[in-house]
Specification:
Layout (H helix, E strand, L loop, with lengths): L1 H5 L14 H7 L5 E6 L4 H6 L4 E9 L11 H9 L3 E4 L11 H11 L9 E6 L3 H9 L6 E5 L1
Parallel strand pairs: 1-2, 2-3, 4-5
GO molecular function, one term: oxidoreductase activity
Protein name: Zinc-binding dehydrogenase
Pfam families: ADH_zinc_N
Length: 149
């Protein structure tokens, strides 16, 4: 969460084990957010995100859950009553390779416009891979792990 603040987030909410709806509406004084981006790709977050935008707000789906997403009535009503716009995005390779997304990303990386360093937890030799996976399972990895052969 500290990485998000370093990269410019105004506020952060730890929604582990709870619905972020109440925290978002408390933080925004009952308004909701302009745009809610679902990037985790979990079944839970894919449903939760629908309750977060304000009236006329937007939901952007970046993550892809690998199971059915069940939306309870409250969240479904938020789509209709708040007149939400919902967008899907594709963040992977497009064809023919390299596609526009790939070239755009490389351009921003070359120009140092994207701040990637704060996202990297560690750079380690490939032989330490098992240790890194164990750390990830135990919550000791806070960002990306770069394996260097």
């Amino acid at each position: 969460m500290q990485t998000a603040l370093k990269l410019g987030a105004d506020n952060i909410i730890n929604a582990v084990g709870k619905d972020p709806y109440e925290a978002v509406y408390e933080l925004t004084k009952g308004k909701g957010v302009d745009i809610a981006v679902e990037a985790a790709g979990t079944v839970e977050t894919s449903a939760q995100v629908l309750a977060l935008p304000e009236k006329g707000g937007k939901v952007v789906y970046l993550g892809i859950p690998y199971n059915d997403v069940n939306i309870n009535r409250f969240r479904f009503e938020r789509i209709v009553r708040n007149e939400l716009s919902i967008f899907g995005t594709w963040n992977a390779i497009s064809g023919p390779f390299p596609g526009k997304e790939w070239k755009t990303c490389v351009h921003f990386l070359e120009k140092k416009i994207l701040k990637t360093t704060p996202l990297i937890d560690r750079e380690i030799p490939l032989a330490k891979g098992p240790e890194a996976f164990e750390d990830a399972v135990n919550g000791k990895v806070t960002g990306k792990v770069i394996f260097c052969p």
